Amino acid sequence: MKIAKEYTSDIFIKNLGFGESRRLALKKCSSDWILSLDADEEIPDKLAKEIQTAIKNNYYDAYKIPNRILVLSGWTEYPIAHSPDTKLVRKNKAVLVDTKVGEHYEATGRIGKLNNYYIHRQNNSVSDYVIKKLDRYTTLQAEMKFNNGDKFSFIKLVYVTMRYFIWEYILLGQIRFGTRGLFQAMMKANFAFLSEIKLYEKNK
């Protein structure tokens, strides 16, 4: 908050949940472009300059940006091609995908890719993820599934847990990052497992 006030007085604080907060941000934004960042994300100088150039070129309506993720005091990354999230998007082309977990902006129109990375300080320690995030996010995921009429099944529990692990570790290449990659893949699998168990609780 203190840093934000050094640049603008247009600061809005609302406890609306993830999706509604992004919807409010979209409504309040007065610029032609939106750069969507979470509290644990940052833009290095090289990326900032690339963003400024991209906006001036005025060719694309949105851009995907590669990211480096801080996990256990080291870095991993994902292939940008597998991300639906457009971090930089024209306001009139932005489409909010409002889910309880993983809400983001997509875009209509032409979508480009930037070269420089943004930094995501996601899981610097086991406690950051397991204690502070996992319980909250799996509860939200289970609530979403329950409200959509999903039912628990043992087969689905095994299937989604294994699918999340294989997708993260093999197909998205976390195997390249040793222990950090294994941790990342196991935590995503654990997320899927706990979400299904919490759905079981709600179905009971």
Shape label? globular
Number of domains: 2
The low-confidence parts are none
Total E-strand runs:
10
- Please state the average pLDDT score: 87
Describe the sheet with the most strands. Answer: 4 strands, mixed
H/E element order: HHEEHEEEEEEEEHHH
Q: Supply Rg.
A: 18 Å
Describe the structure concisely:
The chain has six helices and ten strands. With 204 residues, the chain is of the alpha+beta class.
Describe this structure in words.
The chain has 204 residues and is of the alpha+beta class. It folds into two domains: 2-121, no CATH class; 125-203, no CATH class. Helices cover 46% and strands 18% of the residues. It has helices at residues 2-5, 18-28, 45-57, 126-147, 154-171, 178-203, and strands at residues 33-35, 41-42, 62-64, 67-71, 74-77, 88-90, 94-97, 104-107, 111-113, 118-123. Strands 1-6-3-9 form a four-stranded mixed sheet, with no helix packed on it. A hairpin with a 2-residue loop joins strand 4 (67-71) and strand 5. Helix 4 (126-147) runs parallel beside helix 6 and helix 5 (154-171) runs antiparallel to helix 6 (178-203).
